[in-house]
Amino acid sequence: MSGGKTRTIRTASTAVFAVLALLLVFNFADQSLQSPLLDPLLADFFGRTADIVPLGWVTFVFTLCAAAATIAAGLLAGRGSRLRLCLAGSLTYGAIAVLSVLIPHGRIGYSVFFLARALAGFGIGLIVPSVFALASDLVAADRRSTAFGVLSVAMLAGRLAGFAAGGAFAANWRTAYALIGAVNLALAAALAALREPPRGIREPELREAMLAGAVYRFRWTRKDAAALKAAPSNLWLIFNFVDVIPGSIILFLIFKYMKDVHNMDAAAVNAAIIGVFAAGAAGAIVFGRVGDLWFRRDRRAKVWTALLCNAVPALFMIPFLTSRVWIPDGAGVGETFAVPGAVGLAAWIAAAVFINQGVNPNWYGTLTDVNLPEHRAAMISFASVMDMAGNALGPLCASYLATRFGLRTAMTAVLAFWIFNVFLWLPILSRVRRDLDRVHAVLSGRAAAMNARPKDGV
To answer: For the chain, which residues make up each domain, given as ranges?
Structure first.
């Protein structure tokens, strides 16, 4: 293998990875726009803002459509081009967002908006399994958690970008959607100019054969549904949606909790949330890298890292939940954080999120490692849909707990879910080596068969 060919592959991989990361940023920005625009949307369509049920239905149907598309994308990505699925998705929701400028006012406008968001959900759902399946062919196994940490940061940045755009364009919500849609269309144009990496090119067992000209022709078929059972870790990884529930509870309750329990106004909470998001982004990168470096010495390292990143945050939640800090009425942001203990409140929750965000890249890394290249997108899609269920279940549980037992009890549920989730990682810890051995054996056998065949074009 020539050094020039290797450098060319690395350069092309970097370009594709950069576009995929940006695609996730603006995918999640589009998804996050509606939350800060609730009042402008309701005022535009209904002339009042008290009843948010109509927009609740928009979110429900959007999520349902995205979930259906996510499953479809996972299965299709195992059979055909992942890059084309990303292109189809970004073109779909990008065009719909740009066309938001044509949505009329009033109840007819609501009907059009409802339909537009449902269609956008189908486009958005195509992205995540396709992106992570592509990324697994861009990065070597001992660097995947770090790469997935970068993609996790992209998703966090997208959520912040969506909140910021919604707040900046609250007076003209159509502009917010159109601008993010235009960026997504530009990214679609970039995708069209890129070349998809060969499936399996980053697997050490296949790499030599593929660089010599062999082609990995294995694709997902209906018979491969049994692959879920072939790797017992899959069942625990896919159904381990409990890990997203604590974060969804925190996001759902944080503004009301900080106001009712600590008298902290929204502006100060927003400032704290920016710091918490930054801590989470740093945690995804740091613990993704920890998982990779440790993986070179212990093949259970990514599982250990994810387990610890679930367990340790519970320790930081205890001082946050027991704090009795009270902010004086009318305090500004600077005055709020001058109150003794106020900075500590933000620091405790930031520390918890910093560590907990290390779960995501190591979870994706493990799910990728224990599956064959053609199975990865399908498994990621199944797991992503379960995560959607977890994100819906967390706020629902929190709302009932807060109503029945109070806000402190509801927020304490975060602690309980983090501790419970530790036990769901233990079966993976005991099975992951066998699953990795199975993948290694299958790929080694395929590499031998590929080497024995005539090369394409020979």
So the answer is: 1-195, 198-458
> Superfamily assignment of 198-458 in CATH?
MFS general substrate transporter like domains (1.20.1250.20)
Closest CA to 445 of 140, 203, 138, 227: 203
CA separation, residue 150 to residues 145, 251, 397 (Å): 9, 21, 31
- pLDDT, tens digit, 9 for 90 and up, residues 100-121: 999 999 899 999 999 999 999 9
pLDDT digits (tens, 9 = 90+) for 178-193: 999 999 999 999 999 8
Q: Given a cut of 90, is residue 306 above it in pLDDT?
A: yes
User: Can you tell me the distance from the alpha carbon of 210 to that of 443, in angstroms, rounded to the nearest whole number?
Assistant: 12
145 contact partners, CB below 8 Å, separation of at least 6: 287, 288, 289, 291, 292, 295, 302, 305, 361, 362, 364, 365
Burial 184-215 (b: 16+ CB within 10 A, else e): bbebbebbeebeebbbbbbbebbbebbeeebe
pLDDT of residue 205: 87
pLDDT digits (tens, 9 = 90+) for 390-429: 887 888 888 888 888 888 888 898 888 888 888 889 999 9
Residues of 348-373 as b/e, b for ≥16 C-beta within 10 angstroms? bbbbbbbbbbbbbbbbbbbbbbbbbb
Return d(Cα 267, Cα 19) in angstroms, integer. 33
Q: Using CA atoms, how far apart are residues 163 and 166, in angstroms rounded to an integer?
A: 5
Q: Judge whether residue 368 has pLDDT over 70.
A: yes
Average pLDDT of the chain to the nearest whole number: 87
- Give the span between the Cα atoms of 353 and 282, in whole angstroms: 10
Please check whether residue 150 is in contact with residue 292, taking contact to mean a CB–CB distance below 8 angstroms: no
- What dotted CATH number matches 1-195? 1.20.1250.20
Phi/psi region, residue 72 (left: phi>0; alpha: psi -120 to 50; beta: rest), is alpha
